[in-house]
Design goal:
The protein has four helices and 37 strands. It is mainly β. The protein has a five-stranded mixed β-sheet with strand order 2-9-8-5-6, with no helix packed on it. Strands 24-28-27-26-25 form a five-stranded mixed β-sheet, with no helix packed on it. It has a four-stranded antiparallel β-sheet with strand order 12-11-10-37, with no helix packed on it. It starts with a helix and ends with a helix.
Length: about 550
């Protein structure tokens, strides 16, 4: 029975198909078929850079339009390619409905996808062309210089926008920012991306440190808001005045005249700075608070850290101490861990020295110098410290590792001695005003009376080689560790700020390292007309926009 029914259904299906074919064959002329004209859009290009709040003109060539242009509609739409800052940041926005674009760009600076659409209303078809649109300002990329003018903050910038060099002077002059005396440092923490953990709110990734206080600044044009004040990041709402802020992974640390504070940014951008950690545990388990030097040593380039070591110099007992940060307190179920004395027994030894006691602190600097590969990827790098004893300068290099990896047996030591050098043979080094360590090589530079010297740290008894002399007083000497891959080569470049006196006597020179830093004698960039330069960074558009 089922087979009979199946055959009947199959027969009806064949009849229906045949009828349909016959109907199609007989139905001639019931539909009007039209060739759709092809419209070619040319002239836009693949990438467009536009200056925010300035006029942008995009000529367009359209081939294939019919004589009656009233049948066409046009649309220029921008689709945002970055995270919204507030409710005013629409996902997409129509910029114009004209055939060609000639209008003011009022978009927030950042990357967009620009889509140009031509619609044929008569045929109800449309044609599109896409381009990458980068909206920039005169502050989107370039050298940012924290200057002092009569002791007050002056923020200058030199940038190249659309092929034209722009010098922005005293950008905070009209700001309501409260901290404008005693500029100390300008710090750009990593806002994070697919490969790195966030270390700061990406909307306001810059910290301005002054003697009066500290605040963040906005990513676009360094605008200031009341909520950017450091006190709103403090657990106790104190008006902290840090001298240095740094990060290891997403665990942050800062040092202030009153103490050191940590913050776990892994829990989100609202993470607060916690209670003071600058204490040692006495034998009776009481806290002994200590004063530390104004710098924090840590592994600044390895993102895979769970309990990073933060190193300080104890000014009271004149010795190295460290704080095992991050998850260490939770791992040992003791959140009151403060600082611990660094010991020869605990350290890995690649350099022949004992941790000194009683030496005077001169200088400390983190570098991106790759030393050993970390247990979870990335590299452990080196922190250099210069100490003085009996008129002799001593250099110590220490690789600060991950304490958790040490605890679980994946690292041989929580920290390793990497370098030692007696600097007695270095010309006038005890008179040096500024030091700088290459983030990529074993090279140290220092400045004395306008002269810059280079020291090769591959030997335990190095000597200094004169490099160049700068007119005026050297006020800043440093390297900048770029985050953007295409800028990595520039991390070799030595940055020099100097002052010839007067209101606009500040000068910036960038010396390109040649032959693996064997010799640098001339600068590749030179800019003048700044205030007295205190600190210098390079604002990169991709990592900070």
């Amino acid at each position: 029975m089922k087979q009979i029914l199946y055959r009947i259904k199959s027969l009806f299906l064949l009849v229906a198909i045949a009828g349909g074919i016959s109907a199609c064959a007989d139905d001639k002329g019931n539909y009007n078929y039209h060739d759709i004209p092809e419209v070619k859009i040319e002239g836009i290009g693949n990438s467009i850079t536009a200056l925010a709040y300035q006029n942008l003109s995009i000529p367009v060539q359209l081939d294939g339009l019919q004589a009656d242009e009233n049948r066409y509609e046009y649309e220029w739409r921008a689709i945002r390619q970055f995270e919204a800052e507030d409710e005013n940041d629409a996902a997409s926005e129509v910029l114009a409905t004209t055939k060609e674009f000639n209008d003011i760009i009022s978009l927030r600076p950042g990357p967009y996808k620009l889509i140009y659409t031509v619609k044929d209303k008569q045929l109800d078809v449309f044609y599109q062309q896409q381009a990458n649109l980068s909206v920039v300002t005169t502050t989107s990329e370039g050298w940012v210089l924290l200057c002092s003018e009569n002791g007050n903050v002056r923020l200058d910038m030199i940038s190249t926008v659309l092929g034209e060099e722009v010098h922005s002077k005293d950008m905070l002059a009209d700001s309501d920012m409260p901290f404008k005396k005693g500029p100390l440092a300008f710090i750009a923490l990593d806002p994070g991306n697919e490969e790195s953990a966030p270390q700061v709110d990406p909307i306001s990734p810059f910290y301005l440190l002054t003697e009066e206080g500290t605040t963040r600044l906005h990513k676009d044009a360094f605008e200031w808001k009341e909520e950017y004040r450091m006190k709103y990041e403090m657990g106790d709402m104190s008006d902290a005045k840090p001298t240095h802020i740094t990060s290891a992974g997403y665990f942050r640390m800062m040092v202030t005249p009153d103490g050191i504070h940590s913050s776990n940014f892994g829990s989100g951008t609202e993470a607060l700075w916690e209670s003071k950690l600058n204490y040692l545990r006495n034998g009776d388990n009481t806290k002994e608070y200590i004063q530390v030097a104004p710098y924090v040593g840590c592994n600044i380039t390895n993102p895979a850290q769970m309990a990073p070591i933060f190193m300080f110099y104890d000014l009271d007992h004149k010795r190295f101490v460290y704080h095992p940060g991050g998850m260490y307190g939770a791992l040992i179920q003791d959140l009151t861990v403060g600082c611990v004395n660094m010991s020869d027994d605990e350290a890995g030894i690649d350099a022949s020295f004992s941790f000194p006691i009683g030496y005077n602190y001169i200088y400390m600097e983190n570098t991106g110098r790759q030393y050993t590969e970390g247990a979870m990827g990335g590299f452990n790098n080196i922190t250099f410290t210069i100490l003085e004893n009996n008129g002799i300068y001593h250099l110590y290099g220490i690789s600060l590792n991950d304490y958790y990896m040490f605890m679980v047996g994946m690292a041989t030591a929580p920290y390793t001695k990497t370098h030692y050098a007696d600097l007695s043979n270095c010309t006038d080094i005890t008179r040096a005003e500024h030091f700088a360590f290459s983030p990529l090589n074993n090279q140290m530079f220092y400045a004395v009376d306008g002269k810059v010297y280079r020291v090769n740290l591959d030997t335990s008894t190095p000597s200094a080689q004169f490099q160049f002399e700068v007119p005026g007083e050297i006020t800043c000497l440093k390297f900048y560790l770029y985050r953007n891959a295409e800028n990595a080569r520039h991390s070799y470049d030595l940055i020099v700020g100097s002052d010839k006196g007067g209101t606009d006597g500040g000068e910036l020179r960038v010396y390109e390292a040649i032959d693996n830093l064997a010799q640098i004698t001339d600068y590749k960039e030179y800019h003048s007309g700044f205030g007295r330069i205190v600190d210098i960074i390079y604002k990169e558009p991709i990592t900070q926009e």
